[in-house]
């Protein structure tokens, strides 16, 4: 009796960024961790020359003839994250085989935990099959899919963290060289993420606006290729010639890069108070200079900072809703969860979701 073929199973994690927000597309520094929730894809063979997609989260079957994928434009559906990856694989001169991708994601959508990158990376592993690419090529392929097909001018942080994540470690990624260093999360802290359960609609358009405003700020510094190259002194000398908004955006990026470097050093030194202080400074900069926070996120941060055992709190992700990330003493996590839920419910009549994350391994085939 013939043995049934083994179903191939691929997993790619979401991510939480501890510090370094909106610096990745300015060639700067970020410090994410990969997290236990992610996107799982099981691959089945089919005869018809198409890519068939089903999702536990979205009803219905979607099918796309392989011969049509290279010339496709985005559909405006969740499938675009997979189709964009498929298009990039074809652009590399690699073959797509007919297959059915059964998708199941545990990453909350719209929470800033990178559900899209988890789908892209797991989708790329599934579609590549036995074709081999390096880890960096995998991350870059998925970033190109989001930029060129989906149309979001993102940096590489989300895809890189999903590919390169390591258990028990945070990644300090240099978004220019696409290299990273690893830092431990001190034993005296737990990473607790709080989902505000709101996502304001202007998020994606405002993201594009911020990218444009950073380019506008950079135009005041001939010879510089990214805001990462501008020093605080150079910004101060140019300030009188700059409009208020590009000046504020540049100030955030320049200081945020410094905060990431200091946060990395503090993690190596086991200096939790300094790590927490830098997180709060990051949030205030995102709130006032970069203007990507919202009242719900601000209230979560402000509330967290009044609870015993919290070292620091900040919004994480693109902004305008989504999540905050908090460093909390492990013995105080239960109390933190109860208080943050009760006080947020009382203020907004919403129940926030609370997640406890430890840094997890990156994308892989599941045996």
From TrEMBL:
<protein>
    <recommendedName>
        <fullName>Galactokinase</fullName>
        <ecNumber>2.7.1.6</ecNumber>
    </recommendedName>
</protein>
<keyword id="KW-0460">Magnesium</keyword>
<dbReference type="GO" id="GO:0005524">
    <property type="term" value="F:ATP binding"/>
</dbReference>
<keyword id="KW-0418">Kinase</keyword>
<dbReference type="InterPro" id="IPR019539">
    <property type="entry name" value="GalKase_N"/>
</dbReference>
<feature type="domain" description="Galactokinase N-terminal">
    <location>
        <begin position="9"/>
        <end position="39"/>
    </location>
</feature>
<dbReference type="GO" id="GO:0005829">
    <property type="term" value="C:cytosol"/>
</dbReference>
<dbReference type="InterPro" id="IPR006206">
    <property type="entry name" value="Mevalonate/galactokinase"/>
</dbReference>
<dbReference type="InterPro" id="IPR014721">
    <property type="entry name" value="Ribsml_uS5_D2-typ_fold_subgr"/>
</dbReference>
<comment type="similarity">
    <text>Belongs to the GHMP kinase family. GalK subfamily.</text>
</comment>
<keyword id="KW-0479">Metal-binding</keyword>
<dbReference type="InterPro" id="IPR013750">
    <property type="entry name" value="GHMP_kinase_C_dom"/>
</dbReference>
<keyword id="KW-0119">Carbohydrate metabolism</keyword>
<keyword id="KW-0808">Transferase</keyword>
<dbReference type="InterPro" id="IPR000705">
    <property type="entry name" value="Galactokinase"/>
</dbReference>
<feature type="domain" description="GHMP kinase N-terminal">
    <location>
        <begin position="81"/>
        <end position="165"/>
    </location>
</feature>
<dbReference type="GO" id="GO:0046872">
    <property type="term" value="F:metal ion binding"/>
</dbReference>
<dbReference type="Pfam" id="PF00288">
    <property type="entry name" value="GHMP_kinases_N"/>
</dbReference>
<dbReference type="InterPro" id="IPR006204">
    <property type="entry name" value="GHMP_kinase_N_dom"/>
</dbReference>
<dbReference type="GO" id="GO:0004335">
    <property type="term" value="F:galactokinase activity"/>
</dbReference>
<keyword id="KW-0299">Galactose metabolism</keyword>
<dbReference type="InterPro" id="IPR019741">
    <property type="entry name" value="Galactokinase_CS"/>
</dbReference>
<dbReference type="InterPro" id="IPR006203">
    <property type="entry name" value="GHMP_knse_ATP-bd_CS"/>
</dbReference>
<keyword id="KW-0547">Nucleotide-binding</keyword>
<dbReference type="GO" id="GO:0006012">
    <property type="term" value="P:galactose metabolic process"/>
</dbReference>
<keyword id="KW-0067">ATP-binding</keyword>
<feature type="domain" description="GHMP kinase C-terminal">
    <location>
        <begin position="264"/>
        <end position="344"/>
    </location>
</feature>
<dbReference type="InterPro" id="IPR020568">
    <property type="entry name" value="Ribosomal_Su5_D2-typ_SF"/>
</dbReference>
<keyword id="KW-0963">Cytoplasm</keyword>
<dbReference type="Pfam" id="PF10509">
    <property type="entry name" value="GalKase_gal_bdg"/>
</dbReference>
<dbReference type="Pfam" id="PF08544">
    <property type="entry name" value="GHMP_kinases_C"/>
</dbReference>
<dbReference type="InterPro" id="IPR036554">
    <property type="entry name" value="GHMP_kinase_C_sf"/>
</dbReference>
